[in-house]
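Input/output pair, single chain:
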Amino acid sequence: MLRFEDLRVRDQQTLDRDFFNRRFRLIAETITKLGTGLDSVNDATDNLVALGLVRVNEVLGPLLAKVQAASENGFLVARSSTPLTLAVGLETTLAIADTAERDLFTPTPYVLISRDADEAANDWAILRVQGYNRENGGLAFEVVALNGDIGATAHDDWVVSATTGVAPAIMEAAAQVTQLVETAESASTLAQQAAASAAQVLATGPVTSVNGKSGVVTIAMSDIAGLVAAIAAKADSNHGHSIAQISNLQMTLTTLEGLAANPDGGVY
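Output:
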């Protein structure tokens, strides 16, 4: 480093060529060193700026992507291509593959899952969330309700919506519908049982009340008004009658005998 003592002029010092050349050399060398140092500073500055830009891209880039994704899709929606066949009571896990959606997605205790297909507008299910791993996008859940044909076969075009208010409302409506269905099924069962009991009584069982009689009732001939007298008035199955007991029988026989005796003069 150039010092003042190196350039000091002393009393009675000879001011010749060597005097000035030595000092000029020191000044030139010092300026050269300063230039080299300045280049190093510039290089360091460039490196610092480049490193800063890299860090900005590494840190702010994903944040900006998240902000953009949130503005476009919202943080309550995520998609999954995990093949699943849904059924009530099924406990399983699906994976959210997109990194931005995985980081932004914040599931509520109940989520709504549907399909990303035009023909499946009425197909959806309600899931009870059991856990969510933001690092790998794994969403563990239990299926608690189905609607439409979403459980008819396996699908892989899922859209998961963390709808805090909608899912409980759907659950409440589904519970009411389920209760009505159970009531109707119970009434139907009771009606079937009553019909079966009536059919059994009519087919095999004795009546329990007839004409004021209760308990096990046995019907005798005397219990039917006029039945005994009507049967007594009937003739036996094997019996005989005289000609006089049959109306017009004698006249008919006489006519037939006359016709037989005079076949040519009879009227036919």
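The chain has a mean pLDDT of 76. Strands lie at 77-80, 91-95, 110-115, 124-133, 138-147, 158-161, 209-210, 213-214.
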